[in-house]
Design goal:
By secondary structure, this protein is an alpha/beta fold. The protein is built from 13 helices and 13 strands.
């Protein structure tokens, strides 16, 4: 069953009508949304890789969520005090379901920012959906919005858009043969398959590595034999870095493009100077450093979390956390009726129409798919000077 944005909009307009009626009454309205905080607590959950090999991807997202909640509590204009419940799945879909149930069992939980990875999103979507809890994360696998999760709202552009744009960017470099490699996980394979599809006859492979391994000599040998003039790798930093290093050591010094799963400062250390010398990343994430409206966000994040902040997807998940908070500000019901609060947040997302954030504007279709496009995909290049990936710009501006 598909959700109706019209019904969601009617629900939100009804909320505003109730607020207007309350304002015209001399009686006190202690439950009115946007008023002084009451003696109550609401929790926003977040779940993803906060330790282990993939923490460099997950921790910046958690920072963005926490920063938004801290700002809201300082403002004091949400009916209840907010807190964050973090669950560390290490990005593993096998660990994710019991953590999702732990979140659902919290009778103060109003919404979840996450999960961060595609595999864990597919493993937990039914749990959150059946509980009526909004989940808005960075899982980019294109099949997530086909699962019928009634409460799912993807926070970024999906793999099919990123893969198509990345393929166009690669092809525009005048290449004749592109080796496509991935680690066979839901996210990695989904994106790599889309890149290969977009490249058509230019693609060779895919060549498959195993996550957690450190010796990729067999795949490196196959790539050397293929003789590509460009390499695309779908996966995460712990494998992307060593793979790039071993390819370079074997003489494959052609451009190496990876993705948002490997776009973090630890890539350079793992890849070494030669492996990172000609490395790029495509990402469905804007660079807040190049957005004037995000200047105060960047300044605040760096003051709170260090000079490398904000990391990948921190701005996007800061935005969706704020959309949850805006929904809570507009709530004008019984603050203790957690099912009603959860339903209100879902309805608010359903009716979203171009909500402006620091990263981009947010709308969703009836399947919870983010209504973005090629302009939401950015290209980043490894900088030896900055010891990090720095943005080249939106991919469509570079084609």
């Amino acid at each position: 069953m598909k959700r109706s944005k019209w019904l969601g909009l009617v629900a939100i307009l009804s909320v505003f009508a109730l607020i207007g009626a309350a304002c015209g009454d001399d009686a006190e309205t202690p439950d009115a949304g946007g008023g002084p905080q009451q003696d109550c607590d609401w929790t926003i959950g977040t779940m993803g890789a906060l330790s282990g090999d993939y923490a460099s991807v997950g921790q910046p997202i958690a920072d963005g969520v926490e920063y938004a909640v801290n700002q809201a509590n300082e403002a004091g204009d949400v009916p209840c005090t907010l807190s964050v419940q973090t669950e560390d799945s290490q990005g593993d879909p096998n660990q994710a379901p019991p953590l999702a149930r732990s979140l659902v069992d919290n009778d103060e939980l109003v919404a979840v920012v996450g999960p961060y990875f595609s595999g864990e999103t597919l493993a937990t979507g039914k749990i959150f959906s059946q509980a009526g809890i909004t989940m808005t994360g960075t899982g980019t696998n294109a099949t997530i919005d086909e699962q019928g999760y009634e409460t799912w709202f993807r926070g970024v552009a999906p793999d099919n858009i990123q893969g198509e744009v990345a393929a166009q960017y690669i092809a525009a470099q005048g290449v004749s043969k592109v080796a496509v490699i991935h680690d066979n996980q839901d996210y990695s394979k989904g994106l790599a398959d889309e890149v290969a599809k977009g490249l058509g006859d230019l693609a060779v492979g895919p060549f498959i590595i195993t996550p957690g391994e450190t010796d990729y000599s067999a795949v490196v040998s196959e790539v050397v034999d293929a003789g590509p003039d460009f390499v695309f790798y779908g996966g995460y930093t712990p494998e992307a870095g060593p793979l790039a290093k071993q390819l370079a050591e074997a003489g494959v010094t052609v451009p190496f493009m990876t993705d948002d799963g490997a776009k973090d400062p630890t890539f350079g250390e793992l890849a070494g100077k030669e492996g990172s010398a000609n490395a790029f990343a495509s990402c469905p994430c804007v660079d807040p450093l190049k957005i004037d409206a995000a200047a105060s966000f960047v300044e605040g994040m760096r003051a709170e979390y260090g000079e490398n902040a904000p990391g990948t997807f921190a701005a996007d998940m800061f935005d969706v956390t704020n959309i949850i908070i805006d929904a809570l500000r507009s709530y004008d019901g019984d603050v203790e009726d957690i099912d009603a609060v959860r339903a209100h947040v879902v309805e608010y997302f359903d009716a979203a129409d171009g909500i402006a954030g620091v990263a981009k504007n947010y709308s969703w279709n009836d399947d919870g798919e983010f209504e973005g496009g090629p302009g939401d995909i950015w290209i980043y290049e490894w900088s030896q000077k900055e010891n990090n990936f720095v943005s080249v710009g939106p991919a469509e501006d570079l084609l």
